[in-house]
Amino acid sequence: MTAAVEVEHLVKHYARSQRGLNGIDLTVGEGEVFALLGPNGAGKTTFVKCLLALLQPDSGSIKMFGENVSSPGARRGVGFVPETPRFPDFLSGREVLKMHGRLIGVPAKELDPMIDERLIAADLDDAPKRVKAYSKGMVRRLAMAQALMGDPRLILLDEPTADLDPIGRRDVRNQIAGLKERGATVILNSHLLSEVERLCDHAAIVHKGKMVAQGPMDELVPEGRDLESVFVDLIEKAGS
Q1: CA proximity to 12, closest of 45, 37, 36
Q2: If you average pLDDT over residues 108-114, what whole number do you get?
């Protein structure tokens, strides 16, 4: 399987802090739904920021589809939902998506039909006119809609179902399944481990900046166990 993401010996340290990454090696196959898991402060956000070239690693290499992430071309075709998405309050959801579509180069004739499709998929086609009137769940759904503009090859989702009700979580699961069906690669970070176990092909667990386990979900979670119990056991063992 072609690698969508290849990370070798990734190191990132912060001054006056024990947090960071300490030699992460990771490969995500193209077309996979991959879970990046760990307790708070494990280094997951640092990893994602390095992947998006928002942080410069101290050492190591990161490639997307064979290109170093320092190249803007490597990051073209990447969608991202941050843990705490924010949008200008004075814009409408449609205006947010139109602005993003123009920034990523969606052809003008394709833009409005794509926006309509994304708003309907996010259940925001009849949302309030301005983002300032959106609930937290609606902002989360708008972030997902924005990330999927342009049909990206790689989508990074940081707690994508936070603030969503059960119907909203189901809709996100369906969207992730649809992304996998069309061959996109998804890297997912979530504390809802039952959803991760249901959605993901592979998982990696990090703790204090180090990789403690990774592999196919059916190997990482033996028969008769669940991901939550495996996760807790691994973190407790790594912390001892």
Answers
A1: 45
A2: 94
In this prediction, residue 169 has a pLDDT band, given cuts at 50, 70 and 90, of confident
Tokens 């989702």 identify what position? 157
Domain that holds residue 90: 85-152
Whether residues 165 and 178 fall in one domain: yes
The pLDDT confidence band at residue 96, using thresholds 50, 70 and 90, is very high
> Above 80 in pLDDT, residue 1?
no
Are 186 and 180 within 8 A, CB to CB? yes
How many angstroms separate the Cα of 62 from the Cα of each of 48, 71, 121, 132, 236?
A: 11, 11, 32, 37, 29
- Expressed in angstroms, the distance from the first to the final Cα of the chain is 36
Confidence of residue 100 (pLDDT cuts 50, 70, 90): very high
Please choose, from the candidates 42, 54, 26, the residue with its C-alpha nearest in 3D space to the C-alpha of residue 191. Answer: 42
CATH of the domain at 29: 3.40.50.300
Tally of domains within the chain: 2
**Residue 66 structure tokens:** 């064979």
For the packed helices 93-103 and 108-121, what is the interaxial angle rounded to 10 degrees?
140
